[in-house]
């Protein structure tokens, strides 16, 4: 099998949050093709996420996002299994990105939020983005609830 360039492994890890060995194996399986390796990791991540979906999520954080110079804002409760994961940068970034998603798209429910195109990567849904973080952290992650506020909002 051909030697995989360390720079490709680094790039794949940066783009997917995959571990070193997972990134290397995906690149080997994809013959060094970065896009194919991402697809392989994504498919494995979805399978991993599905196996964790029944785990209880009693830790997490509340993220606040204020938009438009204070004209609108979002509070979101994002849960995971442990405080350790709740304190990681990848989990905090997900919470922030989901709050921005809600501020931009104003979904009416968690189900609607999960089915929306993810604004930071329109090739995937919000649910698919959450599953990729589940694969990276190894823990179940759940959007418990959120609230959207806007000045003079009539609904």
Explain this structure.
By secondary structure, this protein is an alpha+beta fold. The chain has two domains: 6-52, Helicase, Ruva Protein, domain 3, CATH 1.10.8.10; 59-150, Tetrahydropterin Synthase, Chain A (2-Layer Sandwich). It is 51% helix and 22% strand. The protein has seven helices and five strands, in the order H-H-H-E-E-H-H-H-E-E-H-E. The chain has helices at residues 6-16, 20-29, 34-52, 83-86, 89-105, 110-115, 126-137; strands spanning 59-67, 72-80, 117-118, 121-125, 142-150. It has a three-stranded antiparallel sheet with strand order 1-2-5. Helix 1 crosses helix 2 (20-29), helix 1 (6-16) crosses helix 3 (34-52) and helix 3 (34-52) crosses helix 7. The longest helix has 19 residues, at 34-52. The radius of gyration is 17 Å and the shape is elongated. The mean pLDDT is 85.
List keywords for this structure.
7 helices, Helicase, Ruva Protein, domain 3, alpha+beta, 155 residues, 3-stranded antiparallel beta sheet, 5 strands, elongated, two-stranded antiparallel sheet, Tetrahydropterin Synthase, Chain A
Topology summary:
Elements lengths: L5 H11 L3 H10 L4 H19 L6 E9 L4 E9 L2 H4 L2 H17 L4 H6 L1 E2 L2 E5 H12 L4 E9 L5
Helix pairs in contact: 1-2, 1-3, 2-3, 3-7, 5-7
């Amino acid at each position: 099998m051909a030697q995989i360039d360390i720079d490709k492994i680094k790039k794949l890890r940066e783009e997917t949050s995959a571990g070193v060995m997972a990134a290397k194996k995906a690149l080997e399986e994809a013959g060094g093709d970065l896009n194919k390796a991402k697809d392989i990791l994504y498919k494995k991540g979805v399978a991993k996420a599905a196996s964790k979906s029944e785990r209880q999520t009693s830790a997490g954080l509340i993220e606040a996002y204020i938009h438009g110079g204070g004209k609108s804002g979002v509070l979101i409760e994002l849960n995971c299994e442990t405080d350790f994961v709740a304190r990681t940068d990848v989990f905090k970034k997900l919470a922030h990105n989901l709050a921005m998603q809600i501020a931009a798209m104003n979904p009416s429910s968690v189900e609607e939020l999960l089915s929306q195109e993810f604004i930071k990567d329109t090739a995937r849904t919000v649910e698919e983005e959450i599953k990729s973080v589940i694969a990276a952290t190894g823990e179940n992650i759940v959007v418990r609830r959120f609230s959207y506020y806007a000045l003079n909002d009539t609904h």
